[in-house]
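Quarterly update from the structural biology core.
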Amino acid sequence: MKRFSVFFCVSVFLFSCLVESKAAPLKQQNDGVYIVYMGAAAPSNNGSMRKDQAQLVTSLIKRKRNALVYSYTNGFSGFSARLTAEEARSIAQKPGVVSVFPDPILQLHTTQSWDFLDSFSDKKISAAIRPGSASAQPSSSGGADIIIGIMDTGIWPESASFHDDGMGPIPARWKGKCEKGDDFNSSNCNRKIIGARYYPNSDDQGGHILDSGSPRDHSGHGTHVASTAAGSLVDDASYYGLAMGTAKGGSPSSRIAMYQVCQSFGCPGSAILKGFDDAIKDGVDVLSLSLGGSGGFKPDFTTDVIALGAFHAVEKGVVVVCSAGNSGPYRSSVVNEAPWIFTVAASTIDRDFQSQVILGDKTVIKGGGIHFGNLTKTTMHPLATGASLKLDNATRSDDARDCVPQSLDPAKANGKIILCETHDPNYGIDDQKDEVISAGGVGIILIVTDETRFIAPKFDTFPGSIIIEKEGNQVSNYINSTRNPVATILPTVTITGNKSAPVVISFSARGPSLASTNILKPDICAPGVDILAAWPTEADLNRAIPGKNPPGYYIISGTSMSCPHTSGIVAAVKAQNPKFSASAIRSAIMTTSIQTNNQNAAITTTSGETATPYDIGAGEANPTASIEPGLVYETETADYALFLCVTGYNTSQIKLISKTIPKDFQCPDKLTEDAVSSINYPSIAISKLKDGEPKTVTRTATNVGPEESVYTATIEAMTGIEATVTPNKLVFTKEKKKLTYKVTFTAPSSPKNDIFGSITWTSGKYRVRSPIVVSTE
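Predicted structure, tokenized:
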């Protein structure tokens, strides 16, 4: 199998990598390659270079013929090139240059999931427009004209999820292309996959090995996310019979354009920027990026390639959806936090992969995990703890307890099912499973934390199950109370609808944003755990069952999976509301989201605590209600420019970056982070509320429902804080489609902890909710 380190490789205890690789750590930058960012594209917008850009590139090529890697001319201006540090410093001083920085290497961060989301629908919407509806046909809605661009590892075009049956002609406005390459030609594109590009020049010629010279996916990640966002309907899709159902993307009638910006060594920033540049020119409506940097670092928006590319895409009307990252549950671990990016956290669905453990005393424990072993209820085997099977010369007794390599004695372990613990984070499930196999064991039971139980590890054909600590105590007590303990582990079965969901998964990155506590991130939450979607059928990319062909579908987890779920919903909203701006679409999804689970209780995290906006943003995405939001908050380029002022850009730099801001725009002389709180965003975040000193934020709502509408405000009580809305009633008419209100917050004493609430505007038909965060930082 090709080794591929990805951002969905979640280090959650024993699940060190969900595609079972142990690749070397990613290089932090593309050695010798620098990105020269020059802001807005040439005014003509016909793909030509700006004069100052052309002069720099020409001068560079004269000195170093092969220095140029990419030029950016469509959505923005600039280039990437192989430079010395001195050359980079010199170019940074040239007129028209905004920033110069080393080329970073970023990391990559379904059937039942869409049925589960549909179950939350609180509006009756016809099957013809319900995203993910099994009865929807590709030609049944305007979604056929929506183009979702995917920046990822490429695509496996032969997958049944990319068939174009029933789809009409490719939209005439499409300007992209299907690039030929190794084992890939124009015939691999169709009316579903309408574009495919790849970026081989991102290699720095310093040792990186390209997976292929084509858009073909040799990882699986890109194929998985593309089918999640816009896969066509496929009956009886499954992973060897598990998660059986109709596979479908969030917008099955939308088109797909793949931009292969990632290779096995990671995702070079220079290629990501070129992907943005091409996608803007090609005419995509949505861009989905399941990738990003490492969490826990304050972003620098002069060097953040996703933020820079996304800014120009959003300026052109493209909705940019990004994964929040997998560095949770740690505070301030969220990435892709620029306010023009739609940032997505990950949650569970109501499906479990159960691998039941049956003890000799008939006790049944509903363990988890995926395996296709051949044990049955009647094939009981001796059961023992790893600690009791310690190899005599093992260095540490705890090693045998955890079943780490070279810790178990084959003479003692042979023929047994072994109970292992998981205290050592240096070893993962494959290490422990392999040790049990090498010692002659016939099955493995792993005791994990309650939070870890939410993800199903893969044991392949070896019988295996994960159980929580309480259940582990049951097994241990049984072993200790019985002279000849025995057990069996049954093959995995799929269970749906019988557990509280959604739950915010532990790996999902959390707020508050390090960019600014006055913008709430993440924005939304969507399914990202044990998601079934399309996968290449290349043998090396599959954990195939002996004697069976790869199934073409695979189950993986990560915010990489929640991102395309949201991208599919974005496409569905765009299809039904073609005049909505990028920010209006984001607002529609955020303000109609859900805060309760399928048990009608508050959504929780895997630790059992009530989820806060730092965990789920506005809430769990609602694919049906978002199509008719009632009101939207439109965030303008001037709002984003103000944010850039606060984060360190000056007026002249901002005017280089954007040509759509008002000509008289100036960064305020006296600027504090409080200004960010009044950006017209669908959520509200304020910070450092002091004793008795009020803070006021402003919002402008746009009516997209019936022309004559009246909305009344309700504030969710926030302990120790008084919040007043002025006015508390919005009366929209044919002439008044936009109305502004203010919310003033006052506290008699400075809050000691972050406080959460919401403001909800309701009419007879619509409910428009914005979360509120009052932070102490």
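The longest strand covers residues 99-108.
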